[in-house]
Each structure stands twice: as structure tokens, then as C-alpha cells.
Amino acid sequence: MMGAASGQIEQKLLDDLYADFETAGLIPLWTQRDDLMPMSPQSAAVPHLWRWADLLPIAERSGQLVPVGRGGERRAMALSNPGLPGLPYATPTLWTAIQYLGPHETAPSHRHSQGAFRFVVDGEGVWTNVDGDAVAMRRGDLLLTPSWAFHEHQNVTDEPMTWIDGLDIPLVSQLDAGFFEFGPDELSTRATPERSRGERLWGHPGLRPISQPDRPNSPLAAYRWEHTDAALTAQLELADEGAPGVIEPGHAGVRFSNPTTGKDALVTIRTEMRRLRPGTRTVPVRSVGSSVWQVFNGEASATVGDKTFEVTKGDLFVVPSWCDITLTAHTHVDLFRFGDEPVYEALGLARTFRGDQK
Amino acid sequence: MMGAASGQIEQKLLDDLYADFETAGLIPLWTQRDDLMPMSPQSAAVPHLWRWADLLPIAERSGQLVPVGRGGERRAMALSNPGLPGLPYATPTLWTAIQYLGPHETAPSHRHSQGAFRFVVDGEGVWTNVDGDAVAMRRGDLLLTPSWAFHEHQNVTDEPMTWIDGLDIPLVSQLDAGFFEFGPDELSTRATPERSRGERLWGHPGLRPISQPDRPNSPLAAYRWEHTDAALTAQLELADEGAPGVIEPGHAGVRFSNPTTGKDALVTIRTEMRRLRPGTRTVPVRSVGSSVWQVFNGEASATVGDKTFEVTKGDLFVVPSWCDITLTAHTHVDLFRFGDEPVYEALGLARTFRGDQK
Amino acid sequence: MMGAASGQIEQKLLDDLYADFETAGLIPLWTQRDDLMPMSPQSAAVPHLWRWADLLPIAERSGQLVPVGRGGERRAMALSNPGLPGLPYATPTLWTAIQYLGPHETAPSHRHSQGAFRFVVDGEGVWTNVDGDAVAMRRGDLLLTPSWAFHEHQNVTDEPMTWIDGLDIPLVSQLDAGFFEFGPDELSTRATPERSRGERLWGHPGLRPISQPDRPNSPLAAYRWEHTDAALTAQLELADEGAPGVIEPGHAGVRFSNPTTGKDALVTIRTEMRRLRPGTRTVPVRSVGSSVWQVFNGEASATVGDKTFEVTKGDLFVVPSWCDITLTAHTHVDLFRFGDEPVYEALGLARTFRGDQK
Amino acid sequence: MMGAASGQIEQKLLDDLYADFETAGLIPLWTQRDDLMPMSPQSAAVPHLWRWADLLPIAERSGQLVPVGRGGERRAMALSNPGLPGLPYATPTLWTAIQYLGPHETAPSHRHSQGAFRFVVDGEGVWTNVDGDAVAMRRGDLLLTPSWAFHEHQNVTDEPMTWIDGLDIPLVSQLDAGFFEFGPDELSTRATPERSRGERLWGHPGLRPISQPDRPNSPLAAYRWEHTDAALTAQLELADEGAPGVIEPGHAGVRFSNPTTGKDALVTIRTEMRRLRPGTRTVPVRSVGSSVWQVFNGEASATVGDKTFEVTKGDLFVVPSWCDITLTAHTHVDLFRFGDEPVYEALGLARTFRGDQK
Fold it and tell me: How many CB atoms lie within 10 A of CB D178?
């Protein structure tokens, strides 16, 4: 039986020990095992919704007040997850921004080890030059600027244009793997071709240029809405004929892929477009890893964890790791989606659970 | 110094030894090392040309005289390389035939472990049903019937149709890896859709159905001429603009690929289309492995080893292993080509030499 | 020319805009592009040294004062990088701890998605049971407890034992990919075999059990010092004979690998042992990604970035991302090293620069 | 109803057609579909046994009568499958020979694209120099001379030595992929080290030299009997303890693997050692592809297709494609085995059926 005195001595010894931990640059596991190693992922990020109706006016005001150019580089406003206060991160791995380019503005050339894409929910008139290849941006298109490709933008019209950017900035930042380089101050090209070189070379189904080797990221600089739309339409029609193709009844989906490998278009980011028929309710899915969704068309409810968002065109919401997501389509709905799944698959950390809550 | 007597004794011992080799089921290496292990590939197959003008009338006569149906299965006439007498092999690994289907004829369902494709140099009106998916065959199209897929043909028109078949029959035969199964006697479908299910699901550039896994052979049942033509046209235009893409000046080329892996459309057979501008002379290429070429359009000279063939639409010629090939285009020329390169690449046996004769 | 009044108005508009950014959950890129996307990796982690002579007494005091058991799970004290204050992280991706197990103590069974290893700088007498397979821990051994393998420890001697643990806890935490499960409270086995089952099955050079499939992590539960030592000795002897094998003159190195794939023993962590001959000075190397080094034998200087550490047996130091490291051996030196390179290689983010400072 | 006259006319037309097929270099499919495309593999090769007691004396007589040297290159006598008359092929893909080297003889240096190994059923005293690395050959060892590695042999003893060679000569011949090159006439080295450089660099379980890249064939020039024996012993002991490892009860097996990839030691040839406990009867296995087996130790029955061979030390038998094999061990039995499975796996042609006859 330990008396009060020995208890006091022991406490003193413990206090000394913890003080010495700090001096020695040590932190004991036993006081924080729960936080460090939770029973299942407990993301600091939370399900959250950003309404396009809120974002767009702010982007437009930025266009009036903030110049775009060398240094800041882009007039891009990042979604900051309320669970990651002060950080410009939509999720712990994904950076997402609304970018605005005014009439006849340009954004200067640079490149970085972070992988990037643009998705256009509305408008047109901007060309992104990727390693000197001018790529038109139009509603519904997905544009890639893979790791270490020089890129710059120019708006050739009298109208502003707005789109979203997606990058793996948080991932690369946490990994201390970011490199950045400024390109020439002058635009590499003022060309405004209907089709980019990348599309002309790679944009033919199942056909590879014999001269071109495999690449980790897709060489197809743009995935056009007309093809995405046709692919989704076909899946639902095939389902009507009893043929396979859809993800589940009423729910079609395509993945933007690298034609040299069949894998994701970007090494670190999965990009997809989903289509729901009116009335469809998707089976709940819970996955390791996070994603960002943007409504392209239509009206839906999105239940993410314990929150339900009523969403419409342009609205963006995030799904943290190991958080259920279910979609209910009030109308025909198209959703663009990107996530970090390739990271987990490459590292042996992927898990997915389909179905109702355990 | 060995006398005549001991020489005779030694010869007797040697004769006995060789006789005992035979009894024991042995064959010494030292008498045939040169043949077994040549300094470089010495194919028994020879460069050879089959003229379409000769083949087509024979195919038509077969159509009059030989029924198509269960047992023989196909009205297909195989190219027999003169260097492989009595064998229906265009090269030591590749079987190639002209197939003929009369008005309203059908060819019955079967499947086999051999991989197969069809290429259409002229005509239309036949549908190939692949695992129940009806695929139209038209000029310039490449159609796949991969290993172990059930397939059957029907001609829905009043005109006969002719095309070429390519299979890995010799390879699979030498490897003792052939399996064959008869399908139902009745056609699986009489449908004649403009686009097959496979194309509707997979024929969108860079877009993968999320629901579908990787496959060793391409799920894209048909590669249409309109896409192949556009891809070749684009490569030559890009070259005019100084952009990469062509194989060499004036020589464009696409490879038919598996969108789930980026690799060859068929595991064992490489399939490609080449385009030459008038006047182009290609750099000589010598590779391990053999290939078969068919002129799709135009007039050219093909120098294969020490033979030169003047070729025109439909003509077929073969290039044996380690034999130089050079093409000279008299007009705009399109050539379909297939080869066994994937086999050598998979087995670490690939070698290619580009340039003039050593 | 903008007057004072309009300047005030503009500032007011800007202030409003920034306030509305915050309300909307947006953070502009242009104010923090430098931090988010540095020109090259600027790790918050710093080069740092922990002396074994400091750590060991603290570990022993913990052994007196802190019980080991369910909940805290392990008597492990993590190295906390001074650049990552308050976090128990040696580097932004790697968790490293000194673990102490007293005489006849046990640590209870659990498993987690985090990958782990143990490395023993001194002592013996503990067995780690990995999925029920008892693995002896001895000086110089590397022991694996891969992702999701149940593991527990028991000390069967009258002496305490101390070793280091390495895990990918920070990486998995940032990725929100952690799963944890408690095992049975009772030890799965009290066996103390000389060789574990894993070693008996897999510990034969170049020999695979035919019955066993590939695995993402190595099935070889222990890499014994006798083999590591012999491999390093052989490399230096081969160098003396003019044969290849060493990394650079006087610098030998082996990587612990997965015999089913030839890749790293753990999917997310590279583990290596290096040996330097007395007087060897290694070429500076700068890599993306971080590493932790522990001296196993001998005396050396380690220059990491702008710091130089004089190190001896048991000392641990860290190399942050994109920070030069050079080693100078005062005696024969053996160093255990682990790093996060497999993560960067899988994600296309690896870069290495060898040689003197640019 | 067709009259006799019209029948005669039709026959004449058919005869003309078939004659014209021949002239045109065509062979119709319908007359030989059965042979070209059998329902399942019908190998021309047959199950066959070569008794060591027959082979060894013939090899010794060859040693008396036939010189070894440049040109013939090796005193090797190939097993000729009775189903492949006149061909020095054990199976359609595998060449196997007994090789004999007399006291103090040497066999000159050469290299070839064919992959090769040696397996030693008895004796020692020969060193094989592989790219200048001297590798001792002893009972139970597997030695590799991969594609395009220079190799030569020298017997440093007063006793002759005999072993078997295995190569992919038939495969490479059928593929027209053979290259051959003579090396220097003089031996590259007269060294006779206990361990080769390859073993010293690579022969440590799970340990890779950091400086060495992946290779298609194993860099481990020799797999020693002591390791093979230990691995097989361990599997059977583990089975006694209820742990996994054996192929089936009483049947252990190891595969010789490439430590840089975990795959087969040679790209085109699988090499394995099997051990059976007395009384074990293996489950019948039928696979696409062929194999050659050599008894290393013990007495067994081997039932291959409809033949049963009673086999003892040194005896060699072949298993053609898609032919059942069952082994019954009368004593403790060790069997070396090599096969062409990697070829079929790479080409998507592998199939295996386990269990009693369908």
C-alpha cells in the first residue's frame, strides 16, 4: 500500500521525467496514442459546402480590385475547410480555388511539381498554354497542367471567365516536395486554336502515336465536354438495354485517364464526372481519402457524414476521409469530382466500404 | 601418330556412339550448334508478296463452291509463306487469311484461346458479334475478337464481303496452348447497330467507365477508320507546324491500344496503321519478330531484305524476323501492319536496329 | 493619377473583399503563394541530433515510473523535431521512438494501418509476435510489423531491453488513413524460437516458397545482423577486387527488400544499412523526402544542411527534405537509415541531386 | 437434284480452285481447322523418360571420343522427345542436355540470346565463368547463365564432371530470336573461388545492394543446395507445426527467383525444386506448357498422362502441355523441375487444372 508520502515522491519523479522528455526532445506515445492512431480516420476536415452564388460575386470583385501577375501569379481564391482553420485547403490533401481572369488579361508562365487541373463550370474565352501548346477552355472541359509543365493563361475576349483549379498543394506541402519555377514574362504563344496539339495527337479513342513513350501523367491536355457527355449518355442507354457500364442503377460515371497507362490522368489526383438520373439515390460509400465535388448541372441533395447539402450548378462540397456520401438527384444531375485515391492506392492504404452504415 | 588401323577403330567407336545416341534418344549439340543457335535470326520464312488482285477472285470462287458453317467454321484462306511449305502460316508466329462471306451468309459462333482481329480493306455489310455485341465491319476498320471471346459473323446485305483475319495461331500452336469451343448454332443476335456496345462504352478519348476493371486485351471491339484517318492526318499537320508526333519525316503512325493499360490492343499481336506522304522513303528498320503489311491506299515500293515489291491497294507482304524493311511512297500511302512484337517485349527478346545495313 | 480620396475608397473596398473572403471560407492565393509553393522544399523540420547517452537514461526512468499496457500500448518515447514543436514527429512523415520493455514485461497485441519496424541497437531477450509468429529481437536486427499485422512484445529475460521503432504515423495521420484495432489481452504465444516461421519460410537467398503469393510488404519478419554484416563486408571486399557493388568508394550499403517483389520491405518506408570505411567522406546527397539515421557502430561526423553532428553508437539524427547530407567516418562506421523515398517514387515526386552544392 | 454431270463439273471447279490455292500461296482453313485449332492442346511431344543409368555411360564415351572446343562449343547431348523426331528438343519449348567435361578440359566462351541454366545432379570440380565471374558447380546447385551473358567452363580436377543444361532454344528458334557471339578463345579467369562475386553481392536473404538496379534475369549466378535443402526442410517442419508453406501435404517446393523482382530467376524458364515425403501422392495437375523433371534423390513413380515411370536419381522425364502429372514417393524424394510457365503467364495463355481427370 502506497502512502501519501510515497505518492508525492512518485509524482515528483514523474513530473521530472516529463520535464526531461521535453528537454530531450521526446514526446511519450502513451499520452496521445488515441489521437495519433485513431480506431478509424478522424479527419480534422469537415463536410462543407461553398455555394457558387456566393463565390462568383467575390471572384468578380477580386477582378476589379486585385491585379493578376508575376508574384501572386494567379487571381485564385482557395476553399478553406472550416476544420482546417487558416489553411487554404479544401481537404488535407487537395487545394481547390475559384480562378478569375478579366477581359484580355493574362496570367504569367510558371511551373511547379504540384499537379494541377482546371474544370470549367461556365464560360469560355481563355486559353491555357501548356508547354507552349494553346488549349481552349470551355464549359464542361477538364484541362490538365501536370507536374512540372509550364503553363500560363490568356483571356482573348471582352468577357471575364471563371473556373476552378484543383491541385495537390497540401499533399506536396506536407511531403516537402514542392518545386516552383517562373517562366518567361511574355506569353509563349498568342494562338487560339480550336484544338490543342495534345488533343490532335492523343485525342483519338484507343489510338496511340507510335512515336510517343509512356508518361506518368496524361499527355491529353484537355478532355472535352462533348466526349464526356456522350460517354455518360451511352452508359445510361446501355443500362436501359441491360448491358453493363453504369456504376449502379441511374448512376453513370467516367474517369479521366492517361491513355499511355490506362491509369488516372494525374499521378496524384483522380478526376471523374458522374451523372444521375432524376430520382436516383446512390448507395452510401465511405472511402479512405478525401474528395471535392462540383455540381455541373441540375439539383441534388448530397449527404456527407451527418450533413445534407441542397446543391445546384457550381456549388462545391467536400467529403473528408472515411465519411459516408450519398447523392439524391432531384433532376438530371452532372457532377464533377476529384479525389486523392491514387495516393492511397499507390501506398497500400486504400479502403472502401459500400452500403449502409455499419 | 595415329595409324590407319587405330583410325578405323576410332571411327567404329564413333559410329557406335552415334548409333547409341539415337537409341538413347539423344542428339549431340556439336553437330548442329550452327543451326540451333545461329549468329543472328535466320528465319525459314521469306519475304513474300500476295497480290490482292490474285486473292480476291479466288476468294470469290470459294464463295461459289465452298459452304461456310459448323466444322470448317470460316471461309478463310490462309497465306502460306513459301519458306514454310505446307504450313498455313504467313510467318512463324502469325496466321493471316482472306475471309469471304456471301450475301446473307453467316459464320457460326465459336471461341478460342488464339487472339484474333479483322481488318477491312474494302466493303461493308457484315456484323461480327463478339460475346453478343454486334460490331459493324466497314472499310478501314480494325475489329478485335480477343482470346476466348465468342464470335460469329453475319452478312446482312445482298453483296459479298471480304476482309483479312489475323491470328496468333502458329505461336499458340507451337506453344501447345490452343483451346477451342463451339458456341450455339444460332446467331446470338441479329442486331445491326451503327455503334457496338463496346464502342459506346469505351470509344471516348481518355475516358474510362468507372465501373470497368483493367483487361489484358482491349475492350474496344472496333477501331474506326474515321478516327485512324484523323489521327494520321493530325500527325502530319503537326509535323508541318514543327511539333512532334510523326515517326520520321513524312511517316505518321498510330498503334491500336488497350485503353485500360495503354498497351497493345491484343496481348500477343501489335496492330498499327502507317501513312506515308508521296515521295517519302523510310529509314530501314530491322527487328526481331515478324510482321504482315497490307496496303490500304496508294502505291508504294516495299523493300524487304533483298526483295522489292511494287504494291497497291489490298496487297499483302510479310517481313521475316531480322530482315530490313524500307518503304518508298509513290503516292499518298496508308498501310495496315501487324506484328508479334509484344511477345518479344514480354520475353526480353526484343531488338531493333534502325539505319542502313551494318 | 489616383487621388487620396479614391485611394481610401479602394482600400475600403479591398478591406471589405478580404473580410468577405473570410466569411465565404476563401483564402486568396496571391498573399501566400510563396509559402504554399516554395521554389524548392523548405521543410519546417530541421536537422537535429538525439544522443543515445541522453535517451537511454530517460527510457530507463520511464521503465521505473510508467506502466506498459492496454491503452497506452507501448512504452515508447517519440523523437520530436524542434522544427515541428509539440508534434511527436522526427520528420513530417516519420515517427521514431525509443521503446523500453522491462524484465518479463509484455506489451499487448494490436494492429494498425501504419507500417512499422523495430531496429535493435543493443541488447536482446524480447520476442515480437507478428500474427502469432514469435520473432527474436537481437542487436543489429531489423524486424517488420507491416500494416495491419497483429503484434505484441514479451521480454523473457531478467534484463530490460531497448530498441527503436519507426512508423509512418505522420504520413498516415496527414492522409487520414489510420485504422487501429486492439488484439486479445493475452499473448498469442509464449514461444521463443531461435528462428521465426517467417524466416524459416522466406529467409533463403533467392528462394521463394511456391505456395506463397506476392505481398505489398515483405513476409520476411526479421533481417538478421549476421546477414547484413556479411553483405556489407562482401561489398567492400568486392570493391577491393575492382568489382562493382559499393555505393561509392569506401561506402557500402544494403536495402532491406521484399523478396516477393524486389521492392522496399515496407510499402511506405525505405530501410537500409550503410557501412563506411575509416576516413571515408561521402559525396553530398540532397533528396526530396526525409530520413532518420542511427549509428550502429563507430564514430563519425554527419553534416546535414548547415549543421555538423559528431555521432557515436545509438545516436539518432534526421535529414529533412532537400537538405544535403555528408558523412565522414572517423572509424569503421555502420549506420541504420530509414526514409520515406517509396512514397515519392510512387507519386512521381522523387528528385535527387548528388554532388557539391549548386 | 444434282445430276452426275453437274457433280463432275463441280468437282472439276473445286479441283481447279484447290490447285489455284496452291499457286496463289493459300491454304484453306476449313480443311485443317481441327489440327490448327484443337479443342485443347494436343502436343506432338509425348511423356518420356531418359534413365540416368543410360545417359551417363554415353556421356562418358563421348568424353573419350569427341573433343570439346570452338565450333561445337560444348560436349552436350540433347534429349530428343520421341514425339518430335529428329529434333533435339525435350519439349516444344525446352532444350535439355547432359553435358560432360573431362579432367582439366575447358569449354570456350560464348554468349547467346537464349537463356540457360545448369543443374548438377552429381559431382563437382567445374567452374562456370559468367561475364568473368567464376562460379563453382557442385551437387544440387542451380547455376544461371542468362540471355547474352558470356560464359565458359573449366574443369580444374582430375575427374570428369557431368551435369544438365536447360535452355529455351526451341522457343527462341521458333521465334527467330536467336543471336550468338563467340567470346575470346582464352579463359577469362582461372580463379576458383568458393563463392562467386554474384553470390557475395546478392546471396543474402532479402538484402539488396543499394547500388544495383533491377534486371530481367536474376543477378544471383548460383543457388546452392545447402539453401535449397534448408528451405525445403523448413517447409515440411512448418507443416508439422500447422503453419502454411508447403504446396500440399507432404509436398514442399521452392522456386528459384530473381531478387530484384521476385519473379522467376530467368525470364523464360521457371526453375523449382520439389521435395516429397515417403508415401506422398500429389494431386494431379494439368497445365498449359511443358516441363522437364530430374530426380535428385530417392525413388518415385511419376504418372504423366497415361504413362507411369519408375524413377530414381538422375532420371529425367518430360511433361507435355495439358498432360496430367502425379507423383508418388516411395522414399524421401527431391526433384528438380523446370518449365516454360513464365512464357504463358506473360502472354495471357496460362491455364492450370488441379484435381482428378474431368
Answer: 24
